[in-house]
Structure formats: C-alpha cells, structure tokens
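B., you asked whether I could sanity-check this one before it goes into the benchmark set. Here's the sequence:
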Amino acid sequence: MRLLAGIALSIFSMSLAAQDNIPSVDEFIEEQAQQHNLDKAQLKQWLTSAKVNDDVLEAIQRPWEAKPWYQYYPIFLTEKRLKAGLKFWKKHEATLQKAEQKYGVPAQIIVAIIGVETFYGNYMGKYSVLDSLYTLGFHYPPRAKFFRSELGEFFQLASEEGWDINSAKGSYAGAMGYGQFISSSYRYYAVDFDGDGERNLLTNPVDAIGSVANYFAKHKWQAGQPVAQPLSDDGNWSTVASEGMKPNTSRKELVDKGFDLPNHEAVSPETNVRVFEFETEESAEYWLGYDNFYVITRYNHSPLYAMAVYQFSEQLRNARQ
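And here's what the prediction gave me:
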C-alpha cells in the first residue's frame, strides 16, 4: 500500500507540474548562480545528489494543523512536555533572562516555542533538508515556488555557514534545529547569542533561545501586552468570529455592539483584537486575540498553533510561580 501511495503521489506531481510552470533543474541552477553569485558546478553537484522523497509528499498533505482544536491541543499540552519545559527553563534560566531583557519576549513564550517545535531538541527531524526542499520545490506544485525559494536560501545558508549540505536534517518542510527555522528564517533571524562566532541552532540551545526571541522581536512583539483572553460562554461570539489571523476590529467596536469583554490593565478601548473560534467536541470556545497572538502566528501561520503555544506558555508560567 505504501508503494502504491508513493506511485500515486508521483503521478499526481508529474501531472500538475506543467500547470505550475516548474522550471528545470538547469534553469534553477542558472537563476541561483546569477542572483546569488553561487558556483554553478557546486549547485549542480548538490542537486545531482538530491533525491525525491515520497514520505515528504505524504507528510505535507496531512499537517497537524488540519485537525480540529479538541484533537490538536492534546498533542502539545501534556504533563510530559510541561515537566521537560520546566527542566529546560531551570537549566537555561540565565540565558532566558538575558533574552527577555534584550528582546522583550517573555521566557515562557520562548520555552513554549522550543517545546512545541522539538520537545527541547529531542525531535528535530529525520529528513534530509536537501531532499525535502528539492522534493517540494520540484515535485509539489501547490507550493513549489515557495520551496524552490527555500532551497535557494538553503544553498546560500550552507555556503555562508560552511555546512556539509548532505548532512543537514530537519522536518519534512526543511525546518531545522531547536526552533525549527526554515532556511530563510535561519539566515535573517538566527543570532550568535553566546558569542562564540557561530550561529548554531542545530546543537546550541543558547543560540536557539536568542534566535527565537529575536524572531519575535523582529515581528513586533509588544512587551507587557496581552496575547489572548478567553471569552464568556454566554455571548453570541460566532457572529463576530472570523477566519484569518490579524486583529481586525477594536475592543470599543465590540463593546458598542453589546459584547462584554474581559478587562486588562494594559489595553485601551482602541486596542485592536480579533475573535477566534476553536472547535470543541460538542460546540466551540471563543478567545480574544491581540497583536501578540498574531505575532505567534508569524512563526507558524495557524491560530491553532498560536493558541497551543500560548496555553502551554501559561502552564509553564503558572508552574514556575
């Protein structure tokens, strides 16, 4: 059955490739060489060694974020992950304090991200990054353009950092290290937080902590501002809940429509918010998301992900008190 599934996926990819105008490997090499001054012979050597991975094609079509909330959150909000997170926080407390002071991002958010992404470095991915990006960039038309761009970023990253490109491992989507940075994020947001002259997110948790904090700061995390608040069960929230991630109304506009909002000392009537609906087994629960909630979705473009990270961060914070 696995072989048949792989064949079916390969046929699917081949049949749609022409529709997406996927360039040839030679065209891609020429483009990368011209735009980024990379050596053509080196690019050809790297791409010649790349292989199509049918497991990658299968994995990208069944992401966890496709699950309803009531099936999604139990994956991450576990006692085992909480204990591991508290242990990680204790071990790296000084580094987390330094990151919070420099970037304004709370320690619990940084710890939650690394815990959700890789269980503190225990599950950083088994796939060849080269094979994953090659497979998705040339054999997955729905997002081929994006992954070809990431493949180009990966080549530049490998050249800049002096990596053995065939040894890099990551997720099926090519994300790497403690915080699962894709290649473009690694190039633009990774920092050398311990000052050893290397930006190492693959084996160095100190650099990973600083880089996650830097990522959030660059995406306009607002220190001291809320992330999300639960809404009452008796409001007709479904009439104002909407898909999307960025705040799309103000607290005042919701109040003017007759909605009762929870108080928060750091916000004003003009603060922008969005009402989110999360599916439960029998109905739905509703949350008020702020700009900082939107910032979390810049890490992974899913309200489910952002809510899991936020709730886990609150578990960590409460357990530390």
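One thing to flag: Strands lie at 127-128, 169-170, 228-230, 249-250, 272-279, 284-289. Otherwise nothing jumped out at me.
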